[in-house]
Amino acid sequence: MNYHHDYHAGNFADVLKHVILARVVTYMKQKPRPFRVIDTHGGAGRYDLAGTEATKTGEWRDGIARLFDAELPPAVAELLAPYLETVRAMNGAELRYYPGSPLIARHLMRPDDVLIANELHADDFARLKEELRRFKSTTVLNIDARHAVKSLLPPKERRGLVLIDPPFEERSEFADLATAVGEALSRFETGTYVIWYPLKDEAAADRFVATATSRAGLEFLDVRLAVMKSFAGLGLTASGVLVINPPYMLEAELETIMPVLKDQLAEGSGAAFELRSAVQ
Ligand code: SAM
Questions:
Q1: Measured between alpha carbons, how far is residue 127 from residues 132, 151, 152, 227 in Å?
Q2: Quick one: CATH architecture of 5-278?
Q3: pLDDT tens digit string along 36-67?
Q4: Most exposed among 66, 76, 80, 111, judged by the fewest C-beta atoms under 10 Å?
Q5: Whether the predicted model's global pTM rises above the 0.85 cut
Q6: Residue ranges per domain, the chain?
């Protein structure tokens, strides 16, 4: 297990994933009944953008730094407010720290909404536990995500969001992920799932989305963002988020958000986004 999110925190892929996470959590708060967020690959919780790892890659400079002080069209500013206000709450006037998914979710959730954040890497788990120590209705686990899906579903509230954000270190990661999604849906059919995936091999990503959404009647939204035209040998330049059982308004919100997000995060020509919704 070599992956360390400190190198990538706040990059364009994090921004896309976290904007969607914040929209889904915001939607879930419309009903008074408590809900649960299960974050299977939680990471370390908070990242120092002036730290050695983040400085080495500088990825955040082409991600959150492009949005932190940006002048956005009012409709987009309103939709991004829950996400950007969470980032701002961690910082003074200058951008220095970036919240990971468990902190973004917790910041937006109400005290009685339950967060289960899981992280396998021992150091990141310890950091995450410390970051979440002061919150009630919050549990931090240190187990393999494969077991988390089996042991944590269905949630007792029967209302919930499962974020699955693997490191994609293994060749079998897409196939494993599709299997995990199938198992999760068998246990918690009505849950909303937010699943991040890299877009390096588009055919493999297409196969993953087709398999993960093959259940009859399943509703989903597949969002993809490329920050430049892809060239062989370049690092990650595009990623996707698959949302299963999306809130009904998410598609319209993303139609407003994505053109602006694409322009803000573009690195040269060839930036593009794709939004596909379907019922299988
Ligand atoms: N979700 C986080 C966020 O958005 O801020 C970032 C997560 S990062 C992409 C993936 C994390 O999964 C890493 O922190 C890594 O240590 C952890 N990880 C790797 N394999 C795992 C496994 N089998 N079970 C749980 N966590 C794992």
A1: 9, 23, 22, 31
A2: 3-Layer(aba) Sandwich (3.40)
A3: 999 999 999 999 999 999 999 999 999 999 99
A4: 111
A5: yes
A6: 5-278
